[in-house]
Amino acid sequence: MENLSVYLPGIILAYSAFLLAISSPGPNILAVIGTSMSVGRKSGIALAFGVAGGSFAWAVLTVAGLSALLAAYSSALFVIKIFGGLYLLWLAYKSFKSAASAHDIEAKQLAGGERTPMGYMTRGFIIQMTNPKAALAWIAIISLGLKQDAPMWVGLVIVGGTFVLSIIIHTLYAVAFSTPIMVMIYSKARRYVQATLGAFFAFAGIRLLTSRT
């Protein structure tokens, strides 16, 4: 891995953006939480693994697509960074809006009744792959880590690292929210969590928009 110090800051920023993105409950997280609360920890974990698999698929598709695009059109990186930066600023707005709202999370059990562990895993994968916001989020995350003429290993490190983080975090959601006390703790801390997310997304968005490479 040549020039690790050149690409490491971007890789760490991509990891950080991914971690904070999945700290903000979206359809996939709410499905994991709702399943753990209403069905049980085992089913929630199975759903979490499916969601993590979907995240991995989006990451691979995004890295492959952006790498091919940059190989053909080097100037495309500028457009991608503008798009990614604006999306991160939009996430910052949504997080600050959520922090200001008194509305709590709404985690519900999946429709269609109970399933086998494989059924929950498949459902989690489908939830993640059919979420249009996932594609936008991954473009923003990958564009934080990719620099002009970045070698192949940079994309592989981002994909592999985020996949491991996805499995860990989604599984932790399934385990933690199978206990009523964790639901209560998160409900009380929700506004602070969302405000922190908003600050980071604003920082990452501005950094991406003002970066030169």
Structural description of this entry:
With 213 residues, the chain is an all-alpha fold. The protein has one domain (4-210). It is 80% helix and 0% strand. The chain has eight helices and no strands. It has helices spanning 4-21, 27-38, 41-72, 76-100, 117-129, 132-145, 152-176, 180-210. It is globular, with a radius of gyration of 18 Å. The model has no long low-confidence stretch (mean pLDDT 77).
Structural category: mainly alpha
Order of helices and strands: HHHHHHHH
**How much helix is in the residues?**
over 70%
What's the number of helices?
A: 8
Q: How many discrete domains? A: 1
Gross morphology: globular
What's the N-to-C terminus distance?
20 Å
Q: What percent strand?
A: under 5%
Low-confidence stretches: none
Compute the gyration radius: what is it?
A: 18 Å
Mean pLDDT: 77
For the largest beta-sheet, the strand count, sense and barrel status come to: none
What's the total count of β strands? 0
Features:
single chain; 213 residues; mainly alpha
